[in-house]
Automatic annotation (TrEMBL):
<dbReference type="GO" id="GO:0005524">
    <property type="term" value="F:ATP binding"/>
</dbReference>
<keyword id="KW-0812">Transmembrane</keyword>
<dbReference type="InterPro" id="IPR000719">
    <property type="entry name" value="Prot_kinase_dom"/>
</dbReference>
<dbReference type="InterPro" id="IPR005543">
    <property type="entry name" value="PASTA_dom"/>
</dbReference>
<keyword id="KW-0472">Membrane</keyword>
<feature type="compositionally biased region" description="Pro residues">
    <location>
        <begin position="627"/>
        <end position="638"/>
    </location>
</feature>
<keyword id="KW-1133">Transmembrane helix</keyword>
<keyword id="KW-0677">Repeat</keyword>
<feature type="domain" description="Protein kinase">
    <location>
        <begin position="19"/>
        <end position="286"/>
    </location>
</feature>
<dbReference type="InterPro" id="IPR011009">
    <property type="entry name" value="Kinase-like_dom_sf"/>
</dbReference>
<dbReference type="InterPro" id="IPR008271">
    <property type="entry name" value="Ser/Thr_kinase_AS"/>
</dbReference>
<feature type="domain" description="PASTA">
    <location>
        <begin position="445"/>
        <end position="510"/>
    </location>
</feature>
<dbReference type="GO" id="GO:0045717">
    <property type="term" value="P:negative regulation of fatty acid biosynthetic process"/>
</dbReference>
<feature type="compositionally biased region" description="Low complexity">
    <location>
        <begin position="581"/>
        <end position="621"/>
    </location>
</feature>
<dbReference type="Pfam" id="PF00069">
    <property type="entry name" value="Pkinase"/>
</dbReference>
<feature type="transmembrane region" description="Helical">
    <location>
        <begin position="348"/>
        <end position="368"/>
    </location>
</feature>
<feature type="region of interest" description="Disordered">
    <location>
        <begin position="558"/>
        <end position="638"/>
    </location>
</feature>
Length: 638
């Protein structure tokens, strides 16, 4: 099995922490069979698991458990062994518990496949029946009747060994249990016994009859009775004698005909009383020993009517019949002939014949009634209309109509959530009773609306709201916002209020908690306030610096610079500090044309009340001749 092979929903890869499922190897009427590895004993096993569509049927579950119980009590090399049994727990995909059994893993072909591939010689056929008979003898010794012996239930291993399997309809032969169910015939029509066809209680001799049908098909290539329907086959089992195998297939030795005639007797007491006796008779026939019914009285020897006798032989005169002129056969006797016994026997034969005819008529009637009841039971029914009902009400209505229910969910634009949307098969369709009907429950509209109230919510709250709306959270990005707190939702992509498909991903846009700083240079403080208001930056505040800057680039009273500067970002609620422009001072006119530059600068910086002696730079003694005075240091004039 490939490691990536998918398993059905609800079936775990490992069962009971021991059996690892590897592959599907077969399907039956009620269960699937998987190849598995037993990790405890390191061997291959076959795990038979009841299918989910049949697990809700109590009759099927009981039959499955009965098979496990019946085979677990048997231990024989010609019977497929059962090692373990249990139940898989219910899951979201499967609400029913699934019984399982762990069996011996057998490689080979079913006898049905062997028959279909080629003709089987007498020696191989007898050896196969010997294996089946030994399995049946062991089963019967443990009071278990198989009830469904047929080619499909016999495995022939690669080495030619015979394995009997599928005890699904086996029953214990005790006095408290019967072999049939009311108005039901159990078995396969082409191989079941006349008592099974009549719906009577069966015993181990019913299995021997089925084994005889199996040998008949091995030798001739077809079962003893065939027909257009199980009903016609059942009639033949009850009232007809099958043709001898040698008449059906010319290459079959007639020595097997009396053995087959006995094993296929209509009355149980006339058949072989054990499967081993049947197999022994076949082996004797294979070795050239003819089969004869046991005789109650030995055959008597009589002298011939005609003959030549020597009258001179001693004692002959005493023994010889008297001479007569009449033909010996027609000789008349004066003594009365005893006929009472012959009349009595003739009357008994007539009475037995009448009883047989009545029995066949009753059996035929029972078979017909049983088949009619089975037909009525399996008559198709219309699937009821469950649309817009709750899941419980819809399931109950379908189960009341004898259907098995499997629930699935789907989106539906027209049906409210958690209401029944449709069934498969559709309502009104006629299907067989106990069929599985899939009930689809609506999950509402597939279109989902992105909630519009996600803005200004925390990320956790937004995630919860999206999940409740049937949506998933995609990527998370961040943008600056002047009003939304850090890590709270600004918006979504697609936009809030948009309609999207259920389960779609919605990207969240969260706030960084920062804003872009506007450029306020060249604006008056009042104009700057208006700009903040227009851009929604009311949380930012403006603060004037105590310093001013003398410049002729900006009008006095306008903002020269700001902190933080633009472009840039800052935290919400922060403060922008600005510096206002100040006009430069007007220049003072020169006093005398002959003044030196140093004297002119000194006079500009000095006040009218200062005396020449208070300015050192203006003292003639401190300035060499022919040299200009040094420039004044900043603030030196104040």
């Amino acid at each position: 099995m490939s490691e990536v092979e998918a398993l059905p929903p609800g079936l775990p890869r490992m069962i009971s922490d021991r059996y690892e499922i590897e592959s599907l190897i077969g399907r039956g009427g009620m269960a699937d069979v998987y190849l598995a590895l037993d990790h405890v004993l390191s061997r291959k096993v076959a795990v038979k698991v009841l299918r989910p569509d049949t697990a809700s049927n109590p009759m099927v579950v009981n039959r499955f458990r009965r098979e496990a119980k019946a085979v677990a009590a048997l231990s024989h090399p010609n019977i497929v062994a059962v090692y373990d049994t249990g139940e898989l727990p219910a899951t979201d995909q499967q609400r029913e518990r699934l019984p399982f059994m762990v069996m011996e893993y057998v490689t080979g072909k079913t006898l049905k496949q062997v028959i279909s591939q080629d003709r089987i010689d007498a020696q191989f056929a007898v050896s196969l029946i010997r294996g089946v008979s030994e399995a049946l003898d062991h089963s019967h010794a443990n009071n278990v009747v198989h009830r469904d012996v047929k080619p499909a239930n016999v495995m022939v291993t690669d080495s030619g060994h015979v394995k009997l399997m599928d005890f699904g309809i086996a029953r214990a032969t005790d006095n408290s249990a019967t072999m049939t169910q009311t108005a039901a015939v159990v078995g396969t029509a082409q191989y079941f016994s006349p008592e099974q066809a009549r719906g009577e209680q069966v015993d181990f001799r019913s299995d021997i009859y089925s084994a005889g049908c199996l040998f008949y098909e091995l030798m001739t290539g077809k079962p003893p009775f065939t027909g257009d329907s199980p009903v016609s086959v059942a009639y033949q089992h009850v009232g007809e004698i099958p043709p001898a195998p040698s008449e059906v297939a010319q290459d079959v030795d007639p020595i097997f005909d009396p053995v087959v005639a006995k094993v296929l007797s209509k009355e149980r007491d006339d058949r072989f009383q054990s499967a081993g006796a049947f197999a022994q008779a076949l082996e004797n026939a294979l070795n050239g020993i003819e089969f004869h019914e046991d005789q109650s009285t030995p055959a008597t020897y009589t002298l011939p009517i005609y003959g030549t006798h020597d009258s001179t032989e001693p004692g002959f005169a005493a023994q010889a019949a008297p001479m007569t002129t009449e033909h010996p056969v027609f000789t008349t006797h004066d003594e009365p002939v005893e006929t009472t016994r012959h009349r009595s026997n003739r009357g008994l034969i007539v009475l037995l014949s009448l009883i047989a005819v009545v029995a066949v008529a009753i059996a035929s009637f029972l078979v017909i009634r049983s088949i009619q009841a089975d037909a009525e039971k399996r008559a198709p029914l219309a699937v009821p209309d469950v649309k817009n009902l709750s899941e419980d009400d819809a399931s109950s209505l379908l189960r009341d109509a004898t259907f098995n229910v499997r629930v699935e969910r789907e989106f539906n634009e027209d049906v409210d959530e958690n209401k029944a949307a449709r069934t498969d098969p559709a309502s009104g369709t006629e299907v067989a009773k106990e069929s599985t009907v899939t009930l689809y429950i609506s999950e509402g509209s597939e279109q989902r609306v992105i909630p519009e109230d996600l803005t200004n919510q925390s990320e956790a709250a937004a995630r919860d709201a999206l999940r409740q709306a049937g949506l998933e959270v995609g990527k998370v990005t961040r943008e600056d916002s002047a009003t939304i707190p850090t890590d709270w939702v600004i918006g979504t992509s697609p936009d809030l209020g948009s309609k999207v498909k259920a389960g779609s991903e919605v990207d969240l846009i969260l706030s960084t908690g920062k804003v872009e700083v506007p450029d306020l240079t060249g604006k008056t403080p009042d104009e700057a306030e208006e700009i903040l208001k227009d851009q929604g930056l009311e949380k930012l505040s403006l603060s004037a610096s105590t310093d001013t800057e003398v410049t002729d680039e900006f009008a006095p009273g306008t903002i020269v610079s700001q902190t933080p500067s633009a472009p840039g970002t800052m935290e919400q609620g922060g403060t922008i500090t600005y510096v206002l422009a100040e006009a430069p001072a007007e220049p003072t006119p020169s006093e005398t044309p002959s003044e030196t530059p140093s004297e002119s600068e000194s006079s500009d910086d000095s006040t009218a009340s200062e005396s020449p002696s208070e300015t050192p730079s203006q003292t003639p003694s401190k300035t060499p001749r022919g040299e200009l005075p040094p420039p004044a240091k900043p603030g030196e004039g104040n």
